[in-house]
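ugh ok fine here u go
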Amino acid sequence: MDERTQMAGGGRAAVAAGTVGAAGAVGAAGAAAWSGARGSLQAVLPGPSGNERAGWQAKRAAGDGQTRRAVGQRLLRGAVQAGATMPVVAACTLPGRGAAPAGRPNVQALLAQPAHLFWLNWANNVAAQEANTQLIQSFTTRFPQITVEDGRTPPDKPYQEKFAAMMAAGTPPDVFQWQPSNVVDFAARRWVLDLQPLVRRDRFDLEDFPQKGIDQYRWRNGLWGLPLGFANQQMYYNVTEFKRAGLPLPPGDFRQPDWTWDRFLEAARRLTAPPSDDPQQGRWGVQIAGRDIRRWGVWVWSNGGEIIDEQKLVCLLDQPPAVEALQLLQDLIYKYKVWPDPAPPGASLAAGQIMMQAGATSSSISNLRRAIGTAFEWGVTMHPRGKARQYVAAGGGAGWAIARESKATEAAWAFLQHITSTEANVLNCQLAGGGTGSGRRSANADPACTPTEPPLNVRVFVDGAEYVHIDPRVPGWDDVTAVFEAELKPLWDGSAAARQVAAEVKRQVDQVLKERARALGI
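structure:
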């Protein structure tokens, strides 16, 4: 191992350990772990500050085992075969790093050099942690001269603070997990490596990934990451109660355009039975769990609206399609009274009190299967469409990036290809106990990633990848979402109409976008 790599590895370990030890428990998981400690990034990211940010934060504070090894063994076998299919990589020219040698370098010789990788990730359950172990084992079996340190951060560790501390110390993680919504901030600050030259050089096939899964990591002709998966959000519903009410079942095919807002609202109203005295006896047509952009944004997109114009950097929530969608959401709570907000304790789809669960993810299927059992039949459908000509799904999942200042770029690129391979995706499906699609089309053909019922029409989660509307890619995304959280509160509590709320959101978001773009020089 060369001296720079050894020093970087030691420095990263020290920073990571020190940050974890000092920060305490945050209790964030998955994507929440990424955004749960925004304060750390604000120390290194320019942008709005002072009274504006303090106001948003104050408003937010006031508001709200057993694993399978078959695929791992396949990975291990493939790793030691001379003809393994995972592409190997060669040296490349990096911005500001000088010229590459003429001709194609000796790839095997480059990867035969000792290197140490620090892999920062938020593997937050047994299956994900076992996947990490098996992926590292299969990779280092093929490349024994490369060591990989698993920098997994459990749910109670502040992932974002660790990342920010490592970046500030000049010892960035070589490969790290992130959200695509941060692509502009990170790329503009030159924190992440542009993968496009490596993809072009090695003829790395991107066609096997969902197109939008790749698109969400593109910005200004660069490709700044690869998807870990490409999950999307749909809607669960109680099939038994639909039949009992004499309602036609929602479609399970994106090509059937008749699941409209009007039909959805009619079903929600007919399925709602308000409680007389005991809230536990009530039944409600729909529930939308959560306030993040994907939960409410899908209704804006399904009505033909947009949230932000990425090119002009202006908020579009004040436009008629978006206002109409936001007003519908408020009306579901206060006018039609089909969405209990907040829901009574214990009220849920599994308990038989919520008839349609919007914003649902496939990750909850296993728990719902156990909770519902044979009590009733349940299914999956799309979010209804408003004025849009086709259905829209929210989603995108998380992904992987390489730090631009990594001291082991070639090893990191080889490892990134390994953890996004078909075999890795199949491993993730199998260890999760069943699949509803993966980050690669080829993996979806494997039995481990093939969805099984219940729920009825579970394949909606697989087909939904083609209908995902990716999150806006703009500078200052964390501060933009802070405005959404704070300024949409009057919509949710019924104290202001959608038009008034949207106008204030636009005013503040436009300011954030302008200031952050100026600070980043874009």
